Amino acid sequence: MKIIIPLMIVFFCGFYMLITFFIPAKFAQDSSQLLQLWYQGVAAFFVFIGIFNLIKINIDKIQRKLRDWQYSIILLFFLGVMLGAGFIGGRDSKIFLYFFENFQVPLGATMFSLLAFFVASASFRAFRAKTPEATLLLIAAVIVMIGRIPIGYLIWNKFPDLVEWIMQVPNTAAKRGILFGIDLGLISMALRVLLGIERSYMGGGGEK
Q: Are 17 and 35 a contacting pair, CB within 8 Å?
């Protein structure tokens, strides 16, 4: 029963939401809206579970003096500060905005700045012209980079138009192909979950 009941809930709720999408009747839309509200409530509950799990893991790390346990103290301290500021004054309070704008925003900017080096390293590996596809990617990337800067227009005044064509036609076609692949993968995974083939979300990770 511990397995059958969750599978039945997922099966009926999933297919009911799928069916109501094609039924414009008021009762179907109202019930669908109600289930979506329940989903938001469950999702909000999982946020608290995630916070509780984060606190538990970092307290255990501090107690056992694992590697970089000092960072866990900083994390728990600011987690408590942000939670306290949010609960007491709300998201618009001065102290909450102060910590967000002076700690969260610079840390996020620093993280994305570091990611730029990883992107540059990945681009260097991708642009090595070892295959015809990589050569084509390299040529397109060079054209786009040159056409995006003012010197590109000075070299050839048609560079911006060429860049616009590359971005609108081949690039858009490639992006749509990737999106189609992602969507087909999502549909496949959704059907596996609804039909009970994929059960890793229940914690076991097994399939039957």
A: yes
Closest of 46, 26, 45 to residue 34, by C-alpha? 26
**pLDDT tens profile 27-80:** 888 888 898 899 888 888 888 899 999 999 999 999 998 888 999 999 999 899
Q: Mind listing the pLDDT tens digit for each residue in 69-118?
A: 999 999 999 899 888 888 888 878 888 888 889 988 998 899 888 887 88
Per DSSP, helices labelled H in 64-155 are 69-89, 94-99, 105-126, 132-147, 150-155
- Write the pLDDT tens digit of every residue in 7-23: 898 888 888 888 888 88
Closest CA to 80 of 63, 62, 61, 58: 58
* Residues 6 or more apart in contact with residue 204 via CB below 8 angstroms: none
The H or E element spanning position 65 is none
- Answer whether 79's CB lies under 8 Å from 54's CB: yes
C-alpha dihedral sign at 131, 134, 136, 142: negative
Q: How many of the other CB atoms lie within 10 Å of CB of 196? A: 17
Q: Which of 149, 141, 131, 135 is closest to 166 using CA atoms?
A: 141
Q: Cα-flanking dihedrals φ and ψ of residue 198, to 5°?
A: -95, 115
Token pair, residue 85, equals: 């500021």
Cα–Cα distance, 100 to 83 (Å, whole number):
12
The pair of structure tokens assigned to 173 is 């076609």
